[in-house]
Write a structure and sequence with these properties.
Strands 1, 2, 3, 4, 5 and 6 form a six-stranded mixed sheet that branches. A hairpin with a 6-residue loop joins β5 and β6. The protein has a single domain, classed as 2-Layer Sandwich (STM4215-like). About 25% of the residues lie in helices and about 40% in strands. The model has no long low-confidence stretch (mean pLDDT about 90). The chain has two helices and six strands.
Length: about 140
C-alpha cells in the first residue's frame, strides 16, 4: 500500500503557521508543551485516524480513505488571566484564519475545522495563568495498493 505521510501533513500545517502567522510564539510538531511567559506555544499533534464505511468507495480493498484528526494546541502565559485570554484568543483566531486562507497547501485543502477544547490552570509556582485552546482539523487521506 502507498503509505500516508502523516508527519508530512503535520509539517505542512507547521509551514503555514510559521510562514503566515505573526506573533511571538514557537511552533513544534509532536513535541512536549513548552511553557514560557515570554512567548506562546503552538503544538501540532496527530490524534487518530478512522476509516468510516460511508466514505469508502467502490475500490475498497484497493484503497482506504481515512479521516485524520489533528489537534493544534495554543498555550499562553501571563500574570493576569485577562491578558493570557486576550493573547490566546487572538492567536487561535489568527491561526484558524490562516489555515483557511492557505488550505490548498495542507493536504490539497481536503480538511475542515471541527472545533476544540479550552484549558486553564496556574503554573507550578502559582504565579502565571496558563490558558490553552485547541483547533481540531479533520483531513481526508487515501492509502492504496
Amino acid at each position: 500500500m502507498a503509505v500516508i505521510d502523516y508527519y508530512g501533513i503535520e509539517e505542512a500545517i507547521k509551514s503555514v503557521i510559521d510562514a503566515e502567522l505573526s506573533g511571538n510564539f514557537i511552533c513544534l510538531v509532536e513535541q512536549e508543551i513548552m511553557l514560557d511567559p515570554d512567548r506562546s506555544f503552538i503544538g501540532i499533534y496527530l490524534n487518530r485516524r478512522d476509516a468510516p464505511a460511508d466514505i469508502q468507495t467502490m475500490s475498497a480493498g484497493q484503497r482506504t480513505r481515512y479521516d485524520l484528526t489533528v489537534s493544534i494546541w495554543v498555550y499562553t502565559m501571563a500574570l493576569e488571566v485577562a491578558l493570557a485570554a486576550e493573547i490566546r484568543d487572538d492567536l487561535i483566531g489568527n491561526l484558524e484564519r490562516e489555515l483557511m486562507e492557505h488550505r490548498s497547501t495542507i493536504n490539497g485543502g481536503d480538511f475542515f475545522i471541527q472545533g476544540g477544547e479550552f484549558q486553564s490552570a496556574k503554573d507550578d509556582e502559582g504565579e502565571f495563568f496558563v490558558l490553552g485552546a485547541e483547533t481540531v482539523l479533520v483531513l481526508q487521506a487515501d492509502s492504496q495498493v
